[in-house]
Design goal:
Blueprint lengths: L2 H8 L3 H7 L3 H5 L12 E7 L5 H20 L7 H8 L5 E7 L8 E10 L2 E11 L8 H15 L4 E7 L3 H9 L3 E2 L20 E7 L2
Parallel strand pairs: 4-5
Antiparallel strand pairs: 1-2, 2-3, 3-4, 5-7, 6-7
Amino acid sequence: MAEDEEKSLSEGSETVIRANKKSAKQLRLALKYVDGLPPAYECTFWLAKELSASMGAKIWELINGNMSELYVNSSLGWNALDKQQELFNPLARYIILNPVDQPDQIAGYSVLRFEHEAEEDILYCYELQISPLHQRKGLGKFLMILLQVIGRRTKMEKIMLTVLDNNSAANDFYATIGFQLDECSPSFEDPENEGDTEEVDYQILSKLLA
């Protein structure tokens, strides 16, 4: 992403500017309003610049294991360098779940950014990754509820994310928690512009936070 485009997304409104100034400790306050984290896990908050090399390696290992094959089998392809640059962007914030009995391991994480796009203030969920060893324990749902609380507390208008068509489990999950095709998704059918859609194998989903 070009530097001027990056700046436009991160400084497009006063609301987004304020959100991007919040520390990990300030974001952590949202935990007071969310239940559902199994007692076997701890939830921590980080700015990208605060991640240690060891944490960064574990974060990369998880997404590479979970997603690389899905990307390879899509039109987007898998470019490790581009994905690393996106993942560890200075504006990225991390919510990391660690097993209490193995605090040096990562059970799952979410990567979020505050952005202003198409005249809207949004919380963009760039990643939601759960380790195969810790799936089906409610961790993904917990993280998504937490993201929505953070979005509301920072006065974002909606939460957005991108999902591959071939990731059926993720598509089913997001549908069950209320996400719908966003108007900016290439395949969105506008009733006023019937037939004006683009054939792609990924979707942009969103959920209003008002």
